[in-house]
Structure formats: structure tokens, C-alpha cells
């Protein structure tokens, strides 16, 4: 079964344009969970342009009331991510190599080149009780290195797939993700996926790539402007079911 984790960063981004507290990130999480989402993802950045420290604490307390639903905090482990992990003990932390001024996450870790500096942080996150996922490009050769670091899962960075979707390059690019996911499984890793997945490209991706979890934010929140958040979550769950990846 593929779990759907709803990324609420864009809800926080809209809220942060004013000082009156709406839309509420916590209320958005409740709507998503009530509609059947399996978890909530946030990516607190050092500049605070999305979710902020109080949001992380509030969402952690909220998720405590939803047994079986998971809280995933993602971010750069060299930019304060582990402070959040130590404070709220999320179910999962996803290490993402985005720089402080990055517009959005746009590449995965370079393994084994990044292995030495990542190793103590992976170990620390594990000691704090979090499942560790590494944000990775679809490079099969890197998956054994991710496993050797002690990661539990990898998250495949799917923007290249989204860009190729509907073009002549789609099958070739998708094949890279299949190969990378298979290599990850052989190395004993779970497989997550995220970035620019949407209602059009999600089911085809999941038919090819067996994923434990997809984390979707931008497209889902954009669709929610048209359909409402609860209805949109159900639409994405339907796409997962369509792929045969969810019972």
C-alpha cells in the first residue's frame, strides 16, 4: 500500500503573507487527515517562508491524536532539521540537500561523496527514534551507499519524471526510477517519492514504481483551490487506488 502524506508548506506560505493566522496550517492538517491522508509532511526552512517552529510543535501534538497517521519533517540536516527531530520526535525525517536560498528542492544527495558528513547525522536521527529517509536522484548505484549510511528509506526526487511526463522521453525517464527503486529494495531500503507529482502523473508512476509513500504538496494544494482540500485528498487517494497501489 502506498501512503499519502500531504505537504502543508504552501498553506503556511499563504498564511505568512498576512499576520492574521489564516489559512490555518493545523486546520488544513485536520481536513487532510479526516479525508483519509496517511500523514502530514512539513519542510521548515531557515528563512521561515513556509512552516515555522510553532507549526511543527502544533502539528506534532495534533498527530499524536491520530494513531496510525505519520508526521514527516523534511529539510537539510545541516540547517537545523535535527533540532526539530529532537523536539517533537517525528515518525520520519527526510534529509534533503537544499541550500538556504534555494527556490525549492532540486536534487538529491550525492553518494558516496556526501556519505562521510551525513553519517553522524543519520546516526543521531536514528537515536532520536526517527525513521530516516534520504532524498535521492534515481541513481541505482547510490542505493547501497544509502543503506550503508543506516537510512531506512530513500525518497526519489520526481521532478525529472514530472517534466518528462507526456513527452517522448516519459518511458525512458520512468525506467530510471524503476531501476533505482528496485536497487533500493535490493539494498533493504523502503522507497518514498515526491516532488511535482500530481493527479495526472501519479497513477502511471505508481504502476511502475512500488512506493511506500508519496509526499505531495504543491499540486495538491493548488487543486484544493478548485475542489476543496478534503475532496482533493480523496481525489489523490483515488489515483493511488487506480494504480493498484492501495487496497
Secondary structure topology:
Layout: E1 3-7, H1 9-15, H2 25-34, E2 39-42, H3 53-63, E3 70-75, H4 81-88, E4 92-95, H5 115-127, E5 131-136, H6 143-149, E6 153-157, H7 159-164, H8 170-186, E7 190-194, H9 202-208, E8 213-216, H10 218-227, H11 229-242
Parallel strand pairs: 1-2, 1-8, 2-3, 3-4, 4-5, 5-6, 6-7, 7-8
Helix pairs in contact: 2-3, 6-8, 10-11
Strand line-up in the sheet with most strands: 1-2-3-4-5-6-7-8
Distance between the termini: 7 Å
Q: What is the count of β-strands? A: 8
Strand count, sense and barrel status of the largest sheet are: 8 strands, parallel, barrel
Q: Strand fraction band?
A: 15-25%
Alpha carbon gyration radius: 17 Å
Rounded mean pLDDT is 95
What order do the SSEs take from the amino end to the carboxyl end, as H and E?
A: EHHEHEHEHEHEHHEHEHH
CATH architecture: Alpha-Beta Barrel
Compute the number of structural domains: 1
Helix-strand makeup class: alpha/beta
Which word captures the global form?
Answer: globular
CATH class: Alpha Beta
Low-confidence stretches: none
Helix percent reads 40-55%
CATH superfamily: Aldolase class I
Structural account:
This protein is of the alpha/beta class and 247 residues long. 45% of the residues lie in helices and 16% in strands. The chain has an 8-stranded parallel β-barrel, surrounded by 8 helices. Strand 3, helix 4 (81-88) and strand 4 form a beta-alpha-beta unit. The protein starts with a strand and ends in a 5-residue tail after the last helix.
Keywords for this structure?
247 residues, alpha/beta, 8 strands, 16% strand, globular
Amino acid at each position: 500500500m502506498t501512503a499519502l502524506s500531504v505537504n502543508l508548506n504552501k498553506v503556511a506560505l499563504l498564511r505568512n503573507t498576512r499576520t492574521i493566522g489564516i489559512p490555518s496550517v493545523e486546520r488544513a492538517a485536520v481536513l487532510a487527515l479526516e479525508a483519509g491522508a496517511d500523514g502530514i509532511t512539513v519542510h521548515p526552512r531557515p528563512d521561515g517562508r513556509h512552516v515555522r517552529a510553532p507549526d511543527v510543535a502544533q502539528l506534532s501534538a495534533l498527530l499524536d491524536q491520530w494513531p496510525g497517521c505519520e508526521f514527516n519533517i523534511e529539510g537539510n540536516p545541516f540547517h537545523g532539521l535535527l533540532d526539530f527531530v529532537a523536539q517533537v520526535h517525528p515518525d520520519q525525517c527526510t534529509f534533503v540537500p537544499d541550500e538556504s536560498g534555494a527556490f525549492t528542492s532540486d536534487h538529491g544527495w550525492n553518494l558516496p561523496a556526501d556519505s562521510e558528513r551525513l553519517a553522524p547525522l543519520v546516526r543521531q536521527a536514528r537515536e532520536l527514534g526517527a525513521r530516516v529517509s534520504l532524498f535521492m536522484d534515481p541513481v541505482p548505484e547510490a542505493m547501497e551507499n544509502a543503506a550503508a549510511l543506516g537510512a531506512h528509506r530513500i525518497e526519489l526526487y520526481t521532478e525529472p519524471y514530472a517534466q518528462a511526463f507526456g513527452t517522448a522521453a516519459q518511458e525512458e525517464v520512468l525506467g530510471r526510477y524503476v531501476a533505482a527503486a528496485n536497487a533500493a529494495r535490493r539494498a533493504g531500503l523502503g522507497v518514498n517519492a515526491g516532488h511535482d507529482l500530481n493527479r495526472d502523473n501519479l497513477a502511471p508512476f505508481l504502476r511502475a514504481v512500488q512506493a511506500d509513500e508519496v509526499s505531495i504538496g504543491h499540486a495538491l494544494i493548488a487543486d484544493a483551490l478548485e475542489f476543496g482540500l478534503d475532496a482533493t485528498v480523496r481525489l489523490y487517494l483515488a489515483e493511488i487506488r487506480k494504480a493498484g497501489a492501495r487496497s
